[in-house]
Amino acid sequence: MTFCRISAEPAHKKRFPGCHEYLNRLEKCLSKCYSRDVKIFKGKQVVKWAQNKRITDAVLRDAALEICEGKVDADLGGYLFKKRLARAGAGKSGGYRTIVGFRKADASRIIFLYGFAKNATANISSIQAEALSLAAKDFLAATEEQIIHLLEKGSISEIKNG
User: Fold this and answer.
1) Is the pLDDT of residue 82 over 80?
2) Which residues pair with 85 in a beta bridge?
């Protein structure tokens, strides 16, 4: 007999269909990201943008976990990925876009570099992509001391796990 991890009751499965599949997927994702101690950061532009659009750290953290799982909307090259975020009360298609710096092979850090609404900007320009790619490359290659300095300076902020 299968028991739900939330209630430990067999009847729970009947009341909430799909619960086990969702929890299994979530557990897989969390163990993949958290076991490797992935640190999630956001740049200064994303901090201001997220506050203005009322996008919480929890939403960004969930997006980062999906990125760890390989669920990105576009691989822009140069350690850049596009990830869609749902607008409150709406779906992802008319929502927000974020540009994220991430190295698949060594995923110890993820940084949200840029955020925009789809209705305001269709995509980033090639010049923006090149600049963001350089920023992502430098950030991902930075030492721990350099990251601490950026945090103290206020250039980036960390999104805490949990």
Assistant:
1) yes
2) 96
Overall number of domains in the chain: 1
How far is residue 143's CA from residue 14's CA, in Å, rounded to a whole number?
50
Scanning the structure block, which residue is given the tokens 């990201």? 33
Dump the DSSP string for 105-150.
Answer: TT-SEEEEEEEEETTT-SS--HHHHHHHHHHHHHHHH--HHHHHHH
Let me know if residue 22 belongs to a domain.
no
Q: How do strand 39-43 and strand 74-77 relate by DSSP bridges?
A: unpaired
Q: Which domain holds residue 87?
A: 34-159
**Where are the strands (E) in the chain, listed by range?**
39-43, 74-77, 80-85, 96-102, 109-117, 156-159
Question: Which tokens is 44 given?
Answer: 């200064």
What's the mean per-residue pLDDT of the chain? 80
At residue 9, does pLDDT exceed 50? no
53's CB contacts (< 8 A; 6+ apart) are: 96, 115, 117
Is the CB of residue 99 less than 8 Å from the CB of residue 29?
no
Full-model pTM: 0.74
In a domain, 6, yes or no: no
